[in-house]
Amino acid sequence: MATDWVNRELAGLHETGLHRRLRTFQGPPAPRIQLDDREVLLMCSNGYLGLAAHPRVIQAAQQAAADWGTSSAASRLISGNTPLHRNLEKELARLKGTEDAVLFATGYQANLGTIPALVGPGDIVLSDQLNHASLIDGCRLARTRTHPYPHNDTTTAAALLAEHRTRARRALILTDGVFSMDGDQAPLATLADHAQNHDTMLMVDDAHGTGVLGPGGAGTATHQGVADRIDLHMGTLSKALGAEGGFIAGSTPLCDYLRNRSRAFVYSTAPAPPTVAAAHAALQVLQSEPHRIHDLHDRANQMRRGLQDAGLAVPDGETPIIPIHAGKAHDAMAWMQALEKRGVFVAAIRPPTVPPDTSRLRVTVMATHTRADIEEAITAIQDTAPRPPNTPPEATP
Ligand SMILES: *Cc1c(COP(=O)(O)O)cnc(C)c1O
């Protein structure tokens, strides 16, 4: 058959420990969730604030389905635009402190739709090597010259700008605000300096900072005090905000331009009313229940410190994303499976999501985890940790 090669590709994935299969969960993303026929402690959801299971958010989605239907049934520019969409954009602009914001169906689409509208052949992009796949794909789609720079290496980024900027029409620096698999942050002030010195745009993907960092969950740039120096604030509604959809926040002309020139905006159906209403309600809960962000950071600190005290290879950080180094893909998978047997579910992250030999357990905590949940997870992770290769078996008396 013409598709026989697929079986050979799959065999290769199995041999290298890189095959992925879908697991099926029952119920909303909450600290305790049903996996197959048992309950597990969920330690790898991006629903950091527990808002996808919040009664007010659920109620808003239900009401919007009743009032506006379950689909927008057209692009925003045809007949899919409603006051719900416009009000959410205004609220997102308020959160980010910008003049306006543009809504997309997903965060992935926001990046894919925005980068090719900003740059093309004859332009340059500087892109952190650990940037999210959707930023990388956006660059590919733009058919622009992309210069990757080593992770958070602003010196190399500046040198690349000095070398290539003058011959390019436009230039763009792309970075995650919070890096999705490492949980660390970009040095935005320094990147903003370089951008300013070289007449270059700066776009920050804050999928994991929005609703998490800074006063009121405004994001990484606000947390670092440089929000007004970012040209494009990208965010997603699908993580801390408990809904679905992506957005770009920026100036009025920039947003007007994207509504005209971003193909992912023009040629895709407007986000469905229930999800738009859910995101709006989530933003209101963010304001009315500020303890959620506080709880999130309390649990993240407890987890990070507990794992470090247990002697595990865990970097310092300020976010709820806590990577635990495992090395080879097979080792990360074995650790994950041992944890699952203990009733704790943590995803092993393997190439190509992370570079070779940097497979890891990516632990994420939620505001709705109890301190006892975190304690239980730490103990299980410690008990199942693979022994370093040189450690002797059990000490014999
Ligand atoms: C999840 C993620 C996206 C994509 O957002 P979706 O709304 O899930 O499509 C983009 N960038 C980063 C850094 C992410 O982690």
Could you characterize what this model shows?
The chain has 397 residues and is of the alpha/beta class. Helices cover 42% and strands 16% of the residues. It has helices at 5-15, 55-68, 76-80, 83-96, 107-118, 133-142, 154-164, 188-197, 220-223, 252-261, 263-266, 273-288, 291-309, 329-341, 371-384; strands at residues 25-26, 32-35, 38-42, 100-104, 124-128, 145-149, 171-176, 201-205, 232-236, 246-250, 321-327, 344-345, 347-349, 359-364. The strands form 3 sheets. Strands 4-10-9-8-7-5-6 form a 7-stranded mixed beta sheet, with helices on both faces. It has a 4-stranded mixed beta sheet with strand order 1-2-3-12. Helix 4 runs parallel beside helix 12 (273-288), helix 5 (107-118) packs parallel to helix 6 (133-142) and helix 7 (154-164) runs parallel beside helix 8 (188-197). The longest helix is centred in the last third of the chain and has 19 residues, at 291-309. The radius of gyration is 22 Å and the shape is globular. The chain starts with a helix and ends in a 13-residue tail after the last helix. The model is unreliable at 392-397 (pLDDT under 50). Bound molecules: pyridoxal-5'-phosphate (PLP). Pyridoxal-5'-phosphate binds at residues 106-108, 111, 132, 134, 176, 180, 205, 207-208, 236, 238, 246.
